[in-house]
User: Fold this.
Amino acid sequence: MDSFAQLMHGFANALQPAVLMYGFLGCLVGTLVGVLPGIGPALTIALLLPLTFKVPATGMFVLFAGIYYGAMYGGSTTSILLNTPGESSTVMTAIEGNRMARRGLAGPALATAAIGSFVAGTIGTIALTFFSPLIVDAALLFGPAEYFSMMLLALVAVTSVLGNSLLRGLISLNLGLLFGMVGVDLQTGQHRFAFGQAELLDGLEVTIVAVGLFAVGEAMFMAWKGHAAEGKVEEIRGSLWLDREGWRRSWKPWLRGTFLGFPIGAMPAGGAELPTLLSYYAEKKLTAHPEEFGNGAIEGVAGPEAANNAAAAGVLMPLLTLGIPTSATAAILLSAFTSYGIAPGPLLFQQQAELVWTLIASLYVGNVILLVLNLPLVGLWVQLLRIPAPWLYGGIILISTAGLYGASSSVFDVGLLYAFGLLGFVMRRFDVPVAPLVMGLILGPMAEQSMRQALTISAGDFTTFITRPISGGILAIALLMLVVPRVLKMRKS
Amino acid sequence: MTATRREFLMAAGALSASALSWPALAAPQFESIFMFVPAAPGGGWDGTARAIEQACKTADLVGSFQFENVGGSGGMVGLPRFINQHKGQANAVMVAGAVMIGAAISAKSPIGIQNTVPVAKLTEESGVVVVPANSPFKSFGELVAAFKADPKKVPVAGGSAGGTDHILLGLMLKALGRNPREAAYVAFAGGGPANAAIIGGQVAAGISGYSEFEEQIKGGRMRALAVSGESRIPGVSVPTLREQGMNVVSANWRGVFGAPGIQPAQRAALERLISSMRDTPAWKDILVKRRWADSFQAGSAFEKYVAQDVNDTVGVMKDLGLA
Assistant:
């Protein structure tokens, strides 16, 4: 119960007005950053790093934590309302969320995302408080072989987003896998598909591709449809809040999403995208309303949103307990620690107990602030849909371009954004789903690199994927996921 | 009389000049500095650049700083931009280091760090060879024996292929008389996953900059067997490779570079600025806080050092099959 006493002490610190103000400011900035496409929490925190010379450590980390959690909340908003995910981890939310908005159910979609984020964020933070060392040790059992098997499992799960036409879905997925090959190969240093462009050597950034395909592509598609789209501003029907039915259908996906998101987020190469995909897959398979999937099913919003926020809490575990950053944001947080002369690592909890527990307490507080901040905003955000489409989409293009250029100050990246926008338009025009492309771009390089890492370690022995128990177990699950539904279907007919 | 009069006037002038030079000394050496960082905000080069800003501002050496970050590919996206857009600009500086040399070679780029004007080297970090805490290799000698027997059976984790970690492994294998291409080098993107793979015992050993592993070593999750610097790291009892009979020295350094085409006087002014900056208490404070090792070297000595490093790196990269 020692950690409980320390947590209470942390709360006492976190609830002091000055600290609370940093928390609120962080949540507000974070929400905005999440809403704006192309600007992510990692960049925002990096730009605020010079402040570490002036602001005391506690205030700074509470601010950063607010930005981090806030961006996870805000990212879902544009996904749902405008089909333009601001972060790669909210791509899955866009699929069902935007369908719901088009059916006039933007309110419940935003509400289930916000409450789901709160539930997952809070459970994730509780797990972070009490079970960190346990979960981190378990996560360390995952090596390259296990990651490769997990990527295979994820590729099976991708089938759930391929859409109505298997051929079109696979075209999209394979394009994504292909785009994932661009750049310097990590294992050999060789250049692939870079065509002598220095800008391409680091590969295609998922954010640029996602914002291009979704935001710019959607805007071009709207412009092309022209008058057909006019007056298509959706009436907002029903309540802005979750009704009884909404709660009933949401709570299980929230919990399932949390239990997928947290451990995967804690894995050194897990990330937040993978659990959102797995959560979507699980909800689609488990739902009592399969006919609604693809047409705005609330489970498809509740699950991935919870998974995304739980993963955000999970990422903090290896950072705080071992000093190991597992995401871009965590890496920036690590450099913030070092600029205070604090070294996160196995000894952090002993040497900086005060700071760590204040930070953790502020995560609880931040979740509450975000819920309070976001629920009233639902009404405001929904009003966005009343803006006439040409203005709205013009604004989206402006904001994504400015955000991207502001982030990288690279004209090349802006060109890339529009190139992918054009591709997104063509794909929409010919009814090819764009989500599999983004998933392929994320999963492909991770699968390839972990497979080659595993093979280097095993000196070229392919059986490593089966003989390592965890890896073999995951492969077995992936196989079952492929086979069982088919067998059941055959039995029925 | 006129002569005396002139003398008097000159003396008066000199007097007033010296009187004026008091505030002149306290005035900034540079009104503004354009700081170019060929990496994204938050990384090592960016951290060094912001620390320079901090130290210069505290000591009033520079009026204002303007930053530009152009990240990507070990600095090879930013470098051409710095060279083309700031040619001859006397107040433009770039922070870069050893990583850029390897990046230029593996990118087969016609330009490299040698196309800029070396101003001063600031910090240096030794590499360190570690094994997981429960590794069967108890000493560096045992690890070396395993390398000698068959490098393919000793997977080593580190940063991206062709980076400083990979180069150090190549140098070690070469010193052992093995072909560097036999290395079972497992490249990880970023320090996090590499750390996790070593702690989790997924690989036999790991190589990286000391700071990357420092906390794990202190926390007892990794054992450090050797450091790669000229001498031991102050306060760290790990012996160097040389002490253990392997003639390999390598370090990841960071320094400041001026734009190509600046005049010798302008270059000297930049050197003066960085030298004064290095003597400020603020900089010394930052060095301690971030545990950066001071390896200050300016002028022609630094220029020679860079040229030598470029030469050496080309050699190793060829051995590794990366150039």
